[in-house]
Amino acid sequence: MSRDPRPGEVYLEFRAVGQQVKVTAIDAATGVEVSTFGPVSASQADLKRIAVRKLQRRLEQEAAARADRGDPTLY
Hints:
This protein is an alpha+beta fold. 35% of the residues lie in helices and 31% in strands.
């Protein structure tokens, strides 16, 4: 069953890599993906908060870059 992603929906993946956890956050609407690492002793909520904030920052940066480019049809 297929469904359209809702604005603000984020997919999270937690993967243990040795003594660290790799957290990947993906924006469902745009497909933009960021990753961060933390110790396995860190709480999942803390790692989630860091990954989601990093994703939000990346989306803000990309939106600002698009705004700076202006209208691509103008010379």
